[in-house]
Amino acid sequence: MKPITGFALIDAWLSDSPWRDEMIISAIRHMVLPVITLSVAPTTEVIRLMRISTIEVYDQNYVKAAATRGLSRFTILRRHVLHNALPPVIPRLGLQFSTMLTLAMITEMVFSWPGLGRWLINAIRQQDYAAISAGVMVCGSLVIIVNVISDILGAMANPLKHKEWYALR
């Protein structure tokens, strides 16, 4: 298979080879273990944060009032709890990005995948200070951008922040 984009799954999908289906299945099979390695730790952290936030929201009076009105537990969860439990979690997702970046570097080294992390670790091994500086700047910039975006999204999703915006007008 001739690489076009550098992503095996996309290259297999864009290929006009008669073995296209087998290439797609092979690309997916080769992605399973790295994806699991990369996603387990951040997913458990997000689930823990969401659980804590959901428990706090369930103790609020409006949730108890909704239960008293006879709404089902699923309806209460969908209409009242998740809407109010998500805003405190969103800014913390930006902090998870740095963890994901670190895990991606480790995953690239373990599974011998090319990428920014493997390039940066090889630059550290070879003591290529210009490449190390560039890699750290790129990674740091990505972390800052993602944190700013997650903070903005968290503020937009938080109804209490909307009240503050209107009070400032």
Automatic annotation (TrEMBL):
<protein>
    <submittedName>
        <fullName>Peptide transport system permease protein sapB</fullName>
    </submittedName>
</protein>
<keyword id="KW-1133">Transmembrane helix</keyword>
<dbReference type="Pfam" id="PF00528">
    <property type="entry name" value="BPD_transp_1"/>
</dbReference>
<dbReference type="InterPro" id="IPR035906">
    <property type="entry name" value="MetI-like_sf"/>
</dbReference>
<keyword id="KW-0997">Cell inner membrane</keyword>
<feature type="transmembrane region" description="Helical">
    <location>
        <begin position="93"/>
        <end position="111"/>
    </location>
</feature>
<comment type="similarity">
    <text>Belongs to the binding-protein-dependent transport system permease family. OppBC subfamily.</text>
</comment>
<dbReference type="GO" id="GO:0071916">
    <property type="term" value="F:dipeptide transmembrane transporter activity"/>
</dbReference>
<keyword id="KW-0472">Membrane</keyword>
<keyword id="KW-0812">Transmembrane</keyword>
<feature type="domain" description="ABC transmembrane type-1">
    <location>
        <begin position="1"/>
        <end position="150"/>
    </location>
</feature>
<dbReference type="InterPro" id="IPR000515">
    <property type="entry name" value="MetI-like"/>
</dbReference>
<feature type="transmembrane region" description="Helical">
    <location>
        <begin position="131"/>
        <end position="153"/>
    </location>
</feature>
<keyword id="KW-0813">Transport</keyword>
<keyword id="KW-1003">Cell membrane</keyword>
<dbReference type="GO" id="GO:0005886">
    <property type="term" value="C:plasma membrane"/>
</dbReference>
